[in-house]
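Format notes (please read before filing issues)

Several people have asked whether sequences and structure tokens are stored in separate files. They are not. Every record keeps both together, in the order shown below: the sequence lines, then the token lines. Line labels are part of the format and must not be stripped during preprocessing.
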Amino acid sequence: MENKRTCLYDKHVALGALMQPFAGFDMPIQYSSIIDEHNAVRTACGVFDVSHMGEAVITGPDAERYVNHIFTNDASAISAGQVLYGMMLYPDGGTVDDLLVYKMGDEEFFLVINAANTEKDIAWMRENADGFNVNIEDASARYGQIAVQGPDAEKVVEEVLGLECKELVFYTSKTMNVDGEALIISRTGYTGEDGFEIYCSEGLIIKFWDKLIESGRCKPCGLGCRDTLRFEVGLPLYGNELSKDISPVMAGLSMFCKLDKPEFIGKEAVAAQKANGVSRRVVGIELAEHAVPRHGYNVVADGKVIGVVTTGYQSISTHKSVCMALVDAAYGKLGTQVEVQIRKKTFAGTVVKKRFYDKHYKK
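Then the structure lines:
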């Protein structure tokens, strides 16, 4: 089956991007280099095409109650214009997906889901809507999306795109009209830096992309550095640090599961895991030597395999060899000595916090 293309595909090719399949789309992995693009986001400004992400619109009299049923965080605790991060779970506590929920109003929510999971997620939402007066629309085809990220993002969005965004605080959004079209802009991102995500028609997205690139104030960035950036600040990637076999409790993300809510799918499982502990946990590991621990490599201790690397890099911002790994809980304490098997050698490592680099959000 042929891969899908985002509305910016021709723009990426024209810029000489390295294109590769990702989540069923042909996506840009890098333009200049991953290091160059990574550093641009950490020090100035970069723009990502994230039009492959999925969007669902939930409307109806029971919208809030329904979102609270399928989502771990508490949608009733926020007002219109606020955004929440959380998960959809299976009854056993495994993760269907992690997502953002935008409250547009009491009877309208905008959900942003992972590209690779869009069809599965929408099907899951529909399967679990019995008894709720709601409409679930897969709106993915209606939206293009770009993420403008980095310490200069606010200035660039205001001055280059002419979109007022200064007043937005972290994890808030607003709808505005541009060229007679509605767009959603939020102060959110997946890089650990300040930034904005913009959702609107494909035509407008192309226009914004062109303006940003022509300005010279915003570097085009591929999915390569999107991964190195999110990894350094300890943000999970579905399929690596969260999955149907990795619950939010195992991933260290149970703060996004509100057990004081009346109910949500998977609540009992999360409560039991928090009370009784879990057998495996996602931890950070720092290697003593320069070697690159990659996804899938074994973690060893006491002469046996005790886990597996979920994501690993030589951190671009800190130059340390670090990884996140799913390990037996007995080896999950900070300071525990472990080893990572890289090809035929093992390298000594220490369990550390998963955040290898500090976030710089504008609160």
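For reference, the curators noted about this record: Residues 202-215 form the longest helix (14 residues). Helices lie at 9-14, 34-43, 63-70, 118-127, 153-159, 202-215, 223-232, 267-276.
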